Amino acid sequence: MKKWLKYVAVASFSLALLAGCGGQSAPVNQSAGSGATSSTSKGTLQTIKERGVLVVGSSNDTPFAFIDKDTKEFTGIDAEIIKEIAKRLGIPKVEMKEIKFENLLIELNNKNIDMVTDGMYIKPEREKIATFTIPWYREGEGLVVRKDSDIKGIEDLKDKVVGGQKGMAFLEYAQQLQKEGKIKEVKIFGSQAELLLATNTQKIDACITDSATAAYSIAHDPTLALKLVSPYTPHFEGTIAAAVRKEDKDLLEAVNQELKKLKEEGFVLEVLKKYGLNEDNMAQ
Description:
Distance between the termini: 18 Å
Number of helices: 10
Number of strands: 13
Order of helices and strands: HHEEEHEHEHEEEHEHEHEEEHH
Strand content: 15-25%
Largest sheet: 6 strands, mixed
Shape: elongated
CATH topology of the largest domain: D-Maltodextrin-Binding Protein, domain 2
CATH architecture of the largest domain: 3-Layer(aba) Sandwich
């Protein structure tokens, strides 16, 4: 989602790998739970069903697809959706492999995972090297302030100090607003946790960050006296979907069919609400 700025260079490198410049790791074996699918005449979906495990890649990213530190279970927005799809396809288990976000599509095409499910935006440079399912949901940045703040929107930031996270598109947006005289000062933080803590302790007046991540953190950390400004129209809003290899058309079609049903039944909206999102985040 959100780490796309790093991805342009990685996408070029991925193309080189796919053109035969030599992957750094060979596909893992296909014993149950140990790896992803290699090309077979029977098709990827059938191979996964026989193995009994769908292997997905994620950067262990809250609230999208992560291992819960208490339950040790694979959970999150994308995790709950893909687990339900897998169950309906007759695949009893979904296994997450933790991979750096910028390497997810590389590992997908190296056949070390079956799919990418990690809050990934559909972007033209990514579509060159993978195929995305139909959209799962939409989300963008949010403006986070203390609960007692009188800030109601970007127009209230002219004399305010605003934080952003290093490496995120949202930081560049905040810096652009500063250049335009709409923000007094921008401070840079190394992580989402540091950013929210600085807002909570009034070291900064507000922060511009990923709305889904912020909503989840605020909902699950009672020490954070914060809120997302609402209504708010995101400057950066992306459509999120899962990615598969271009040749895995059988898997793509099956996932899309089940996803359509989950949307119609209200399952996807129910999951979004569980993680602090709402109807505004639904994608067609």
